[in-house]
Amino acid sequence: MAPTLDVKKVAMIGCGSMGGGMAQLLAENNYHVCLSDPSEDSINAVLHAAEASKIPSNRFSKHTDYKSLCAALERPKVFFWSLPHGGVGDTVLEGLLPFMEKEDMIVDCGNEHWENTERRQGKCVTKGIRYVGCGVSGGYQAARRGPSMCPGADDETLALVLPLLKTIAARDSNGKPATGAVGTGGAGHYCKMIHNGVEHGMMSAIAEAYTLMRDGLAMSLDEIGDVFESWNSKGELEGTFLIWISRDICRTKNEDGQFVLDEVEDKVVQDYTGEEGTGVWSNTEAVERHVPAPTLTTAHYLRIASGDRHQREQVQKAFGAGSGDPNKDHMAVFAPQKLEDITDRAAFLEDLRMAVFTTCLAAYCQGMLIIEKADKDKHFNINYAELMQVWRAGCIIQADYISTKLLKPIYDYCDPSKSSSNPLLHSAVSSDLKRGLASLKKVVLKSVEADAVVPALSATLEYLKVMTSTALPTNFYEAQLDYFGKHMYDKKGDDEQGLPTEGKWHWEWKAA
Ligand SMILES: NC(=O)C1=CN([C@@H]2O[C@H](COP(=O)(O)OP(=O)(O)OC[C@H]3O[C@@H](n4cnc5c(N)ncnc54)[C@H](OP(=O)(O)O)[C@@H]3O)[C@@H](O)[C@H]2O)C=CC1
Ligand SMILES: O=C(CO)[C@H](O)[C@H](O)COP(=O)(O)O
């Protein structure tokens, strides 16, 4: 008989925003949760919130040291972690190991780097301890209500933990939990990392659309909120979580009746502290695995550039802020302007909707192509259909049309670990991208004229141009490389069937 994980008590180590929510969710599902956190205040905050939700207090216990925590658990001991990435996990593991036994299990729900996950899995396996790298998505609200859970481990461990994850995961419209056996080793954390990369591309596209409506079309926040609501309710952006929260953001007012959004400074700072790594890692992964992901990367660069506002102010001054007539002064500072010649606002908004959709879809495609490449390199043995299910509910990149109409059919019938399932080659995806291209081009053109900041939208336009072209300017680029570095080139018509290989030809452009 297959082993089962029959426990009624679990530990939550790290009781912050996510851990605190998941602890309550577990307790609500009849688990006793042993809470552990360096800060008693954090634990007490969970207990107060649980009391407000009428969760019986005897479903929790507080633990200040690992000995008492481990003594309180049944065998096998199950530890959920919701910790910052990096060294913290190593410290916690070192602290726990003396009290852990064969068959005990760690479910690491942080945004851990997949290589740390695999390193710890290697350490644990020698002691018979199971370590699941489980990406969790949906933010703290979903942690409380039901998040999307993306686990990676060996098959036996996944079979053991999935029933537990299924009880707390978000459910899609068919009642199916947003979790599944994603793959082996660090696959779960790898896919969660790429989820966050895709999230960056989608967030940037929507933020860029917001600025085009606000500054370019001089729309009010109420009007923009209505547009987001309509985008989310039908068509290609239907059921897109980030569009849905954008509607709320446009409508939310503070106690003085002012829009909260208008208080928010124009900078994304969280990548500066190093506390969040997924955005950086997903982009370094793309580059290291030779997968073009400009929608993700450009969105990330926008964050980085925005974060240091002081520098932007200085550069603005150096470029001549307030130095006069922008028509005469070639160093005039860019400033949001109204979009010119928009006679048919409804038609422009429709183009904008399609431009945002195209960018979100391109971000998804780029993310899937990174995962597919890593899967081949690292043998994650990813189950793509299960991964699609993980992203069907509860997560930040939930996008009903993209996942059910476009991607699910591909991954239900195709196993990319055996052959390529490049989504760009699938007719439903390519025809939607083609449909969106004309709108994207119009929006980017208008944005360039109006000095609107649209990095993710324009990077997506360039991506689609480049990916569909067989006449890139890289013949010239290659010639430059050969000129100064004797780096060799292929001649037009040389074999282009296989993987990129070094060229066979050199021209002595100038004798040494
Ligand atoms: N916030 C979000 O939307 C999401 C976050 N994540 C990931 O989930 C993880 C937790 O995030 P989040 O809840 O937002 O972060 P928080 O900072 O709110 O929570 C982290 C918790 O870990 C605790 N902690 C720190 N060091 C230790 C330690 N040595 N032993 C035990 N506990 C420790 C902190 O304690 P202390 O009380 O001292 O601060 C804190 O309570 C991160 O990896 C994050 O990237 C994943 C998805 C969404
Ligand atoms: O994991 C998450 C969502 O999925 C967390 O919200 C995370 O904090 C987002 O950070 P970033 O956008 O920098 O990846």
Task: Please state the overall shape, judged from the principal axes of the Cα atoms.
Answer: globular
Biggest sheet features: 7 strands, mixed
Report the order of strands and helices. EHEHEHEHEHEHEHHHHHHHHHHHHH
Distance between the termini: 74 Å
Do you know the CATH topology of the largest domain?
N-(1-d-carboxylethyl)-l-norvaline Dehydrogenase, domain 2
Rg, nearest Å: 25 Å
What would you note in describing this structure?
By secondary structure, this protein is α/β, with parallel strands linked by helices. The chain folds into three domains: 9-185, NAD(P)-binding Rossmann-like Domain (Rossmann fold), CATH 3.40.50.720; 196-312 and 340-376 and 417-467, N-(1-d-carboxylethyl)-l-norvaline Dehydrogenase, domain 2 (Orthogonal Bundle), CATH 1.10.1040.10; 472-512, Up-down Bundle (Single alpha-helices involved in coiled-coils or other helix-helix interfaces). The protein is built from 19 helices and seven strands. It has helices at residues 17-28, 40-52, 66-72, 87-96, 114-125, 139-145, 155-168, 187-216, 221-233, 241-251, 278-288, 294-307, 309-318, 345-378, 384-390, 400-413, 427-449, 455-467, 474-485, and strands at residues 9-13, 32-36, 60-63, 78-81, 105-108, 130-137, 148-152. It has a seven-stranded mixed beta sheet with strand order 3-2-1-4-5-6-7, sandwiched between helices. α2 (40-52) links the parallel β2 (32-36) and β3. The mean pLDDT is 94. The structure holds NADPH dihydro-nicotinamide-adenine-dinucleotide phosphate (NDP) and ribulose-5-phosphate. NADPH dihydro-nicotinamide-adenine-dinucleotide phosphate (NDP) binds at residues 13-19, 37-39, 42, 82-85, 88, 91-92, 110-111, 136-137, 139-140, 276. NADPH dihydro-nicotinamide-adenine-dinucleotide phosphate binds next to α1, α4, β6 and α6.
